[in-house]
Amino acid sequence: MACKHENFNASVGVARIEDKGRFLAEIRITCRDCGVPMQFMGLQPGMNYDGATVSLDGLEARIGIHPKGQRPNPLQSLLGYTISAHN
Questions:
Q1: Contact 26/15 with Cβ under 8 angstroms?
Q2: Backbone phi, then psi, for 74, in 5-degree steps?
């Protein structure tokens, strides 16, 4: 019988890009019952320190992160705050 994929394991790693002073969250999800990895949809492949991307095989989402207060949060961006310079 085919697995219904009802239970999941998720792992999150944080990559520190030392020469850039930046951070990325690396996320993987697998079915706990059968072990099949889940693919992330709707993201462009590559690396973007200020956004979300996916690995070439689609199995790892990469999301740019930074410590709170170092950049405007999404709400502040909607209110007109801009970033003029960053690492």
A1: yes
A2: -55, -35
C-alpha neighbours within 13 Å on the C-beta side of residue 47:
9
Q: Beta-carbon neighbour count of residue 15 at 10 Å?
A: 13
Name the token pair of 40.
């992330």
Chain segment 6-22, per-residue pLDDT in tens: 999 999 999 998 888 89
Q: Chain-wide mean pLDDT for the chain?
A: 87
- The Cα-based distances of 4 to 8, 30, 36, 58 in angstroms read 11, 13, 11, 20
C-alpha to C-alpha distances, 3 to 6, 39, 51, 67, nearest whole angstrom: 8, 16, 33, 39
pLDDT value, residue 68: 80
DSSP states of 22-46: EEEEEEEEEETTT-PBPPP-S--BS
Residue 79 has pLDDT above 80, yes or no: no
